[in-house]
Amino acid sequence: MRHLIPFALCAGAFGANLDSYPAVSAVKVGDCLGKLSPGSSSKVESPMPCRARILFKGREAVLPKDTQWAEIDAERLSVEERRLANAKATLARREKNDAEAGLRRAEIERRVQEVSQQLVVLENQDDSALGDIEGGEKFRAQLAKRAKDTKEALTRQSDLLLASLDSFEGNRAGEIESARVSVATQELEIIRLRELSKQRMPFAGSVTLLVEPDADGFVRLQAGQAVANIEDRSRYLVAVPTGTQSWRFLPPGSLTALVRLPGGERLRATFYSSESAKVFGREEQVYLFQVEKESMPAAARFGAGNIMTEIVHTTAEPVRVIPKLRFAAEHPDAFKGGADWATAVGKVWPGASIKVEGQSVLGVTPPAK
User: Fold this and answer.
1) C-beta of residue 55 within 8 angstroms of C-beta of residue 201
2) What's the whole-model pTM score?
3) Is residue 258 within 8 Å of residue 36, measured between CB atoms?
4) pLDDT digits over 323-350, tens only?
């Protein structure tokens, strides 16, 4: 028997039954520090120095989508709306006056044309026949003087009419168009102020104040001052940096995040997406896992914060889960010559292969029978 024990140990080391290890389809591949947070969040900042009014009581409120939670600079909006109304009224008067002035301008142009025609008639008047009658020269001289006086009077009248027309057009040139541009600019400003004034929830969620309003809900803000945090609590995400973890090479869709909260509650989250983010000053890939519906109440109670997270890989077919420490302790000779895990497993169970390697376990597929 003394000679059989070493042989039995050796046979146990290199002949252990792989089927004695549990067969599972979900293998824990790592533990890491994750961060639980609402699915979407944003910080609201004051766009300008202003006076705001908070429309809910307390520091925090949970509100439906599109609910107005604050009113910013309502006084300025009211002033700008009155200014716009006055500007529109002034523009309407100018446009009415311009229409009436157009009629006057047409009348002036008609009179200028009449005077011009009269001047043409005087210039072309033939008085040569007057010289053949008695006293004709004297009469012609009188007629010529009268024609000259009339022509000068008509010329002065024409000049005055033309000057009046030029002065009229010069004084009003561009005034109405400038007023129209001013009104359009004020209308755009009103639209902007209205959008700023009514702060609404972009989604159903919570709003948490970062300022202290007075008893009536008013608070004075500086430009760029943080006013509130808004969070979408209809969805929670667990963010996990992949770092140098071996599971980063596994198909992301096969991964699940399991979280144990400080109070003992557990969360389950499935892979949602990946993004690049700075982790401890370095750019790293981060996996985002969306908390499943059944785990949402526990996530909402916890809120947000850093949490220890288990990463679990779901395999296409069941594998045998073997603890690394146990395997190394039971089969030390399998690592002779610096063999890696795959080589060591192949020595112990020829034909077996490692389908997934976690931080502390191996997922091994038995050799084909």
Assistant:
1) no
2) 0.57
3) no
4) 999 999 999 998 888 889 999 999 999 9
Reading the block at residue 322, the tokens are 């073997």
Give a three-class secondary structure readout of the chain.
CCCHHHHHHHHHHHHCCHHHCCEEEEEEEEEEEEEEEEEEEEEEECCCCEEEEECCCCCEEEECCCCEEEEECHHHHHHHHHHHHHHHHHHHHHHHHHHHHHHHHHHHHHHHHHHHHHHHHHHCCCCHHHHHCCCHHHHHHHHHHHHHHHHHHHHHHHHHHHHHHHHHHHHHCCHHHHHHHHHHHHHHHHHHHHHHHEEECCCCEEEEECCCCCCCCEEEECCCCEEEEEEEEEEEEEEEECCCCHHHHCCHHHEEEEEECCCCCEEEEEEEEEEEEEECCEEEEEEEEEECHHHHHHHHHHCCEEEEEEEEEEEEEEEEEEEHHHHHHHCHHHHCCCCCHHHHHHHHCCCCEEEEECCCEEEEECCCC
At 158, give phi and psi (nearest 5°).
-65, -45
Average pLDDT value for residue range 253-267? 91
Q: Tell me how far CA of residue 130 lies from CA of 148, 206, 342, in angstroms.
A: 17, 106, 137
The 10s digit of each residue's pLDDT in 32-45 is: 899 998 888 888 88
Comparing CA positions, the residue from 282, 221, 261 lying closest to residue 46 is 221
